[in-house]
Design goal:
Order of helices and strands: EEEEHEHHE
Distance between the termini: 14 Å
Low-confidence stretches: none
Mean pLDDT: 90
Structural class: alpha+beta
Strand order of the largest sheet: 5-1-6
Oligomer: single chain
Number of helices: 3
Strand content: 25-35%
Radius of gyration: 13 Å
Helix content: 25-40%
């Protein structure tokens, strides 16, 4: 049985700052790197940061994000969010828990 991935931040030096109504600057202190993200990306990341070392299951993460942004959790939202999580993992902001199914 596949369980949803659990997402964690890498380190505790990630800062999110609003730069407009829809754009947010994200600074990764571990890599001394920054990027600009939209509200969905910033909310996903903030929820993962809030979960701290416990991590947050992807289902719960998407639910929290859709609720906070008052967005419908439809297939487009889910697909976008999963792609955003994959991109954040690629640049070293977050990682997912490795399970037996992943091997």
């Amino acid at each position: 049985m596949n369980s949803p991935p659990v997402w964690f931040t890498i380190g505790n030096e990630i800062r999110i700052q609003p730069i407009s109504d829809f754009d947010f600057a994200v600074f990764n202190g571990l890599a001394w790197d920054s990027s600009v993200v939209n509200a969905i990306d910033a909310t996903l990341l903030a929820c993962i940061i809030d979960a701290a070392s416990q991590g947050v299951a992807e289902d719960e993460l998407l639910e929290q994000t859709s609720r906070k942004l008052d967005l419908k959790r439809d297939p487009m939202f889910v697909k976008y969010s999963q792609e955003a999580l994959a991109q954040m993992a690629l640049v070293g902001l977050i990682c997912k828990e490795v399970t037996v199914e992943d091997r």
